[in-house]
Write a structure and sequence with these properties.
The structure is a homodimer. Chain A is α+β, with helices and mostly antiparallel strands and about 250 residues long. Chain A contains eight helices and twelve strands. Chain A has two domains: about 150 residues, Jelly Rolls; about 80 residues, Arc Repressor Mutant, subunit A. In chain A, the strands form three sheets. A five-stranded antiparallel sheet of chain A has the order 1-2-9-4-7. In chain A, strands 3-8-5-6 form a four-stranded antiparallel sheet. In chain A, helix 3 packs across helix 4, helix 5 packs across helix 7 and helix 5 crosses helix 8. The interface between A and B is large, with 42 and 42 residues. Chain A binds a DNA duplex (30 and 30 nucleotides) through helix 7.
DNA sequence: CGTATAGTTGATTAGTATCAACGCTAGTGG
DNA sequence: CCACTAGCGTTGATACTAATCAACTATACG
């Protein structure tokens, strides 16, 4: 159990004055995905209700069922979202990285637990304050909508993975996902950083730790990947991995 | 392959005149979930861009990857949404019933195929026309957002099912889902209508036809359900089914 | 230096999938 | 009117993937 509350890690809070000078962190805020389409003034208004924090690894941001009073945006780092069953079985709903948002909820309660994977910088927005901005800035509302839809499409893709793919296909898909994700962030597709543990990967793919480990080993023996060290992987044959991910893993 | 286009089943089209009298189908339109929160005038404007159709069973409304030009709302009947892999493996993303919407998409292409399970009445809205209404009616935008979020929460719940639940838990969850759904529609929770085939249920739960059939039989032997005939099930011990659904199925 | 944790590998088991046969119902056509 | 066929669902036998149980290594930590 993390002993600290979110606010113990709070770094700064922008002044609420909407007529003040552009905040010194506008560059950072602008990078945040759901600010990308906004005007300078709109970004400033958004920044005025924001609250920054640096969180350590394995920090629980909120738990499933908690009152959903804030929305979060990741500046740097990685976060996992998961659901638990009463006997401890866990399903990781998604891994999130720079620019991703989380914490939107229906009926006032978060639908999943959010926990940092590595040290992570986040922005926090109070739902109450964000709601009024959403009313005033239609583009913000539309952007949030688009992000929710993209999450939905991603979740549906993951349902196909969980319900119908083999272990090998699952792991290949996971690696390709991370590779694509890295490229979107302007990073190279191949020396891949894997900040999450094998247990996290297993709970994301609906497998056990052992099966994930074995499958990594198999892919390495096949020459598809390299495992230079813990927390890292090189994709040696991305085409083969993509083929596997799309369904050639049942022969 | 369905030989007919959607338009071959079109029944009527509301007049576009926003000053005309309330359309004779306002009752029907009002029932549609995403109209529920709207004013009479707003409903009329929505109705003016709507197009009704009666579709037969097993009718493909659209395919994954098709240009996403319309959003659909179910008046009566049932629809399944699914994704296919190249070798034919299928994952059903969701079963939809009266009041449910589908067809929202990102990047202009549908992310899944939509097919009727039974004869189904739907409303169709052109994205192009709906978009301008969304700009004019903030409540409509908010309602659509809320529905997308609800779909996201449902998808995440299903990810837990697919990744971590046993066959027995999956089937129990499925039955409880349908039962809750029936109650929301004002129907009794127990004599349950199962319009979808065993194959559909299997592809929804990430199982095979045989395992679904066997699991139904087991639940029947346990006294939890009754199977009076094809397409129907009675929930004899809903409490036990809910318990199973939440995770007591691994003993 | 001892301990804890993450990861890998091996042996065995178990839960579903696969393959196969059969019954039931509905629609078809003689 | 009744065989014939096709599709769906059930049941049984067997196979196989991935889980479980267990041992071991490597690394980090106090």
């Amino acid at each position: 159990m993390p002993p600290l509350d979110f606010d113990d890690h709070r770094i700064e809070r922008e002044p609420a004055d909407p007529n003040g000078p552009p905040c010194k962190n506008c560059d950072v805020v602008r990078e945040i995905a759901f600010c990308a389409a906004l005007s300078h003034d709109e970004v400033r208004r958004l920044a005025s209700i924001r609250c920054h924090a640096q969180l350590p690894a394995a920090f629980t941001v909120f738990r499933e069922g908690d009152l959903a009073d804030h929305v979060f945006s990741i500046s740097t780092g990685a976060v996992k979202l998961y659901k638990l069953m009463s006997d401890g079985r866990r399903q990781i709903i998604g891994f999130l990285f720079s620019g991703d948002m989380f914490g939107l909820a229906v009926d006032g309660g978060y639908a999943y637990t959010a926990e940092t994977v590595s040290p992570t910088q986040v922005c926090r927005f109070a739902h109450r304050k964000l709601d009024s901005l959403r009313d005033e800035i239609p583009r913000l509302e539309k952007k949030l909508f688009a992000m929710a839809l993209k999450d939905l499409v991603t979740a549906q893709e993951q349902m196909l993975l969980l319900g119908r793919k083999t272990a090998k296909e699952k792991v290949a898909t996971f690696l390709v996902q991370l590779s694509c994700r890295a490229q979107i962030q302007g990073l190279p597709p191949s020396p891949l950083s894997l900040p999450m543990s094998r247990a996290d990967i297993a709970d994301y793919l609906g497998l056990t730790i052992e099966t994930v480990s074995r499958t990594f080993t198999h892919l390495k023996r096949d020459g598809a990947i390299g495992l230079p060290g813990p927390g890292h992987a090189t994709l040696l044959d991305i085409a083969a991995l993509k083929e596997l991910a799309e369904g050639s893993g049942r022969g």
